Every structure is written in C-alpha cells, then in structure tokens.
Amino acid sequence: MDEIFLILLGIAWALGTPLIAIVALVRTAGLRAQNERLAADLASADLQLRPYEFRILQVISAIVFACVFGVALPGILLDMILPGGISPR
Question: What is the residue-wise DSSP string for 6-56?
C-alpha cells in the first residue's frame, strides 16, 4: 500500500512540476512586457528634484545608513544638513 502511494506521488511530481513551470512562464510573459514599457517610460521621463526634495532624500539616506552600519546618527545628520558640515575638510 505504501509503495503505491509513493509511486502515485512520484508520477504526480513528474507531471506536475513541468506543468507548473509552463503555467508560470505563460503568466510572467505579460509581466515582462509591462516591465519593459515601464522602464522605457521612466528612462524617457525628465525628472528633476527640487532642492528641498534633495535635502529630504539626504536625511532619509543618512538615517538608513546610520541604522544599517551603526554610525552615530547626529553626526551624520549635522554633516549633511549644515552648509559647511561639521567634519574637517
């Protein structure tokens, strides 16, 4: 009885795996074309940041950097926000 179950499971695995792979390929074909259209749209867009948006991105990147690498957050923030910075140049 156990052997029959294992044989049926093997057959289901052998037939199901390629079938699932084919279904996945068919479903992702449309996504690939959509991603290419979005990439072309972004490449053609002429995006410009306003100065305050750039500062916001700087502060966010400083916070992320400090959290990931464990660097002193106040020093990084002051160095990026202040016009002259606090580090010697």
Answer: HHHHHHHHHHHHHHHHHHHHHHHHHHHHHHHHHHHHHHH------HHHHHH
Chain CA centroid to CA 24, Å = 21
Q: Per this entry, what is the length of the chain?
A: 89
CA–CA separation, 63 vs 15, rounded Å?
50
pTM of the model: 0.34
Q: What are phi and psi of 5, to 5 degrees?
A: -65, -45
* pLDDT tens column, 39-63: 888 777 766 767 777 788 888 887 7
